[in-house]
Amino acid sequence: MQREHWGSRIGFILAAAGSAVGLGNIWKFPYLVGAEGGGAFLVVYIAFLIAIGLCVMIAEIALGRHAQANPFSAFKRVGGAGWSIFGLMAVLTAFLILSFYSVVGGWTIAYVVKTLTGGFSGYSGAEFEGHFGALVTDAVEPIIYHGAFMAIGVLIVINGISGGIEKASKIMMPLLFILLALLVVRSLTLEGAWAGVEYFLVPDWSHLNPDMVAAALGQAFFTLSLGMGALITYGSYLGNKESIPNAAMWVVGLDLLVAVLAGFLILPAVFAFNMDPAAGPGLTFITLPAIFAELPFGTFIQLCFFVLLFVAAITSAISLLQVVVAFICEEFNVGRKAATIWVGIVIFLFGVPSSLALGVWGDVTFFELNFFDFLGYLTDNYFLPLGAIATCLVAGWVSYDKFAAEVTNDGERPFAYLIAWKWMCRVFAPIAIIYVMAHSIFGV
Ligand code: PHE
Ligand code: NA
C-alpha cells in the first residue's frame, strides 16, 4: 500500500507546529520564566532552542522520512535491530506522555464548559484555588473530561494524515494565533502591565545557575516535541521534494513565537494584578481565572483563553496518538480505524490512575511521587533525553551519509550548516543532554 502523505508543505508545517505548540508553551513556559528569573532564562532557552533543539528536530524528521516508517521500524532501518529498542522506547514514551497530557487536556475542556455554563460566575480571587482543587481531586469529573479529550483526538486521527491531522491543524492553528493575539493586546493594555514586560525581557544574570540551565534545555526538548517519536512519525509522511531544514526552522520559529506571545499574555497580567509570577503550575488554572474575573467582559476573555489552551493541547495530543497508531498499524498489520479506536481506549484507561493520583489515590506513591508526577519524572528525565541522544548518534555517526542525503535532498538543496549540524549531532547535543540528565538525576 502507498504510504500516506501530507497534502502540502504548509500542511506539514502547521501539523508539526501544532505538535510543538502545546501546554508546554502556554502553561509551562510562562511559569518557568516566572520561577527561573525572567529574561535570563529566556536568553538561555532561545540559545538552546536554536543550537540544539533545531538540530535534533532536523535529525528526527530526516530519520522518519528516510525510513518511511514509525519510530520502531525507522530506528531498525537506519541502525539495525539493536537501535530499534530506542524506537520502541519512543513509542512507549508517546503512550505514557499522552496518558497524563490528556488528563490536563481534559481540564481545559472542563474550564471551557464551566465558563460557558456560568459555573465560574460569582467566584472571586482566592476562590479559584479551591475550585481548581475541587476539580482535579474529584474522583469522577476529571476522568470524564479526560475521556472527552481522548475521544476528540481519536475522531481526528481516525481520518488519517491529510484528511484528519492536517485538516484539523489548518483550522486550529490559525484560530490559535487569532485568540492569542487578541489576548496579548488585552493583557498589554492593562494598567501596570509594563512591569511584567520588563521582568520577561530584561535579563538579570544573577539567576543564572545549573538548575536554570537544565530547566531551559529540558523545556527546549519538551516544547519541540523531541525525543518521543512525534517528529519521526510526522516526518515519515513528508514528501521527498521538501527541504527538511527549512520546514524545521519554521516549526521552531512558530513554537518560539507562541511561547514569547504567551509570556506577553501572562506575565503582564500577573504583574498588573500584583500576583506572584513564581506561582508555579497553578499560574494558568488559578491565577489567570482570578484575574479574568476582575476584568470587564471577563467571561468572554476567559472563554477565549481556555479555548486557546484546548486547541494547543489537542493539536499536540494527536501527534502523540499518531505515533502509537502508526506503530500498531505497521507492526501488527491492523487497519487505521481499528488501531486508532483501540489505542485511544487503552491510553484513556492508562490515564485514569494519573487523574486519580491527584485526588483519592494521592497516597499511592512510586519512588515517593504520585503516579501523575512519577510518569512526568520518568519521561522527562530518562526516556526523552535517551531518545534524543539515540537520534543524534544515529544521525551523526551510525548512518551519517543517509542523513546527509536526506537533509540536502540528495545534494539538490545544499544546507549551509550541514557540517555544524553534523558535529552538533555527533558531540555537542549528546554532551549537553547527558549533562542535563546527570544534573536532574544526581543533582551534579
Ligand atoms: N510540545 C508539546 C508542548 O509544548 C508537548 C508535546 C510533547 C506534544 C511531545 C507532543 C509530543 O506542549
Ligand atoms: Na511547545
Automatic annotation (TrEMBL):
Top-rank taxon: Bacteria
Topology in membrane: Multi-pass membrane protein
Compartments, record wording: Membrane
Transmembrane segment boundaries: 12-33, 39-63, 83-104, 143-161, 173-194, 214-235, 247-273, 300-329, 341-362, 382-400, 421-442
Entries under SUPFAM superfamilies matching the protein: SNF-like (SSF161070)
Keyword tags: Membrane, Transmembrane, Transmembrane helix, Transport
Name assigned to this protein: Sodium-dependent transporter
Species name: Pseudovibrio brasiliensis
